[in-house]
Design a protein that fits this description.
This is HAT C-terminal dimerisation domain-containing protein. By secondary structure, this protein is an all-alpha fold. The chain has a domain of 37 residues. The chain has two helices and no strands. The longest helix is centred in the first third of the chain and has 33 residues. The protein starts with a helix and ends in a 24-residue tail after the last helix.
């Protein structure tokens, strides 16, 4: 035979137990976080700069023909447009 008072007490006891267990788990989690990470240690940080740094393809650089850069270009006088002072 269960009365309402007894059920209410059992429910309060269960709620208290759940509250204590939850707080204990949260405390353990915080302790684990503090022990595993050192904010001053840079060695544990992953390097995410791979997307910033490009790796050059040496085969492509060897195959480029840059001889045209060293040749001099001649300018024809017909292409020169005279500058007019508008002031």
């Amino acid at each position: 035979v269960h009365t309402k008072r007894r059920n209410r007490l059992d429910q309060e006891k269960l709620n208290s137990l759940v509250f204590v267990m939850y707080n204990m788990k949260l405390n353990e989690r915080e302790m684990r976080k503090k022990s595993t990470q050192d904010p001053l240690c840079i060695d544990t940080i992953d390097s995410d700069d791979e997307w910033v740094v490009e790796q050059e393809d040496s085969v492509l650089l060897l195959s480029l023909d840059d001889s045209w850069l060293h040749s001099s270009f001649e300018i024809e006088e017909t292409n020169i447009i005279p500058f007019e002072d508008l002031s």
